[in-house]
Amino acid sequence: MKLNDFIWMPFSDSRDDYRNDIAKAAINEDWGHDLRYLYDYVRDNFEISHKQGKVRTSPEGAYCLFRAGSLVTREGEPLTILGVKNRLSGKQPYFYKRLFARERFVVRDDDNVEHDEEAPPAPDYEIPPYHPEYKLAYNFEHYLDDHEPRMEERFPALTTHQRFLCIYAALELAHKRGNQAAVPQWYCDRNADEGSYQWLLPLYVTTEDLSIKPDLVATLSPQPEYAEYNVRTLIPPEYAYSHARAVSGRDPQFRTWA
Question: Where does the DUF3825 domain lie (predicted)?
């Protein structure tokens, strides 16, 4: 179940934007320009929670509750999103009402009846192991030709062939040390019914310093039936940050990517 099929979440620069509510209540961190990283964070964590049966609906379907991932307040209180039944036909079943920033709270339904509730459990991140023994399946035409401007921006002094050699070597090296370098992400394709775990490999071409932002990040889709990882695309690290943050907690391993 995708978030946008289940609940309407206001997404604008207005004060009613749910991202503002979460950013104000949660432990302070950088969520990017216009809180853009929170969009993917909430969406990905909803999908995981729904898949694990952790999205709670009232018996009459008047409202729903689900956690804003594993985020908590400074005092360690959980953050719970409340959605109320949408009376508009042809729309999502629920729409965003408010955020609760405590373990126990009261929800008032349309009939003004109060219901004692507590925060649903946070999603569990059941991240599969990385397999450095898998082969990598490449599509260099996509990396180097379809995204040629991106490659030129990152490596302006290199020829196309030199970029190929550098990217190939960087991928193979990152894959060999994948148990230490690979970062999990949750990702759902636009036409897919649900998301799944993928891997992100930071690629260092212009520096050996692994403590700074990588040049690019490769997205890997597991293909266990072939013992392969499909290297789908190469993206700037800031593009990869939000989906990694959604399931990787506050791991400093990818903090430089934002």
Answer: 23-248
